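REQUEST ID: PR-0412
SUBMITTED BY: lab tech R.K.
PRIORITY: routine
TASK: structure prediction, single protein chain
INPUT:
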Amino acid sequence: MLRVLSTHVFLNHRLHPGLLEIAGRAGAQGVEIFAARQHFDYTSREHVSELGEWFASEPLAPFSMHAPLYPDREMGRAGAPGVNVLHPEKSRRIDAMDEIKRALEAAEHIPFRHLVMHLGERNDAWSQRTIEYAHTALEHLGAFARPLGVRLLVENLLSDATTPEHLMLILDLGHLNNVGICLDLGHAHINMGIAEAIAMLGNRIVSVHAHDNHGQKDEHLWPGDGTIDWPAAVEALRALANPPAAVLEIGYNLNDPHHTIQGKIEHAFARFA
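STATUS: complete
OUTPUT:
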């Protein structure tokens, strides 16, 4: 399984080559860049070029980008609306797709291969309109991403709209064969269970977000600090015809000192060896 570190763990800091070097020294083969403007300003030519030039001269690969969740630099804390392609208001859905396209444009300089995106937000319900809005967003964004060499991956969240069963229904009804899935193991642990989610999603899974919790809330702990059965999860993932990339997505709010993170990354990746 490809070892990938999400820069989510550094979300409180501007993303720079020094942080990426921590990932490389810890054994990561790739990174998932978290597109939050205060962390990675995908609208800044200077910031995009800085990282693009670094990746061009280093072995660490830009495996994926996580689509923006908010259009501001404060993760919505100042009142900015979330990036929600399932919002009931058409103008909000258009704004959300426009923001995601701004992030996708970074692929012209940073050659990431996948874009992980959320369909809606935590409290979005399931309905016929969910399917309609999801199809519109995925078709539109897929057409934009394809010439950039980027494949869309949708993530299971904690909403009824994004259960593994409903994600499969959205993709199958829309004949969206080129859209893959990023299976968030922490979310699956809280909801239907990891083994069940893997069995349902199967070879649609391209990557997994690996983090831990105690089955009650989305804590984004280091693997082993919660109650996920990691040996069983890894065995089920490795049994797939194409084992997915293991993307460590650890909480920035854990406030781990940078000098301790490298060892924790190494220990976490060892679970997927």
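NOTES: Residues 84 and 121 are 6 Å apart (CA to CA).
REVIEWED BY: pending
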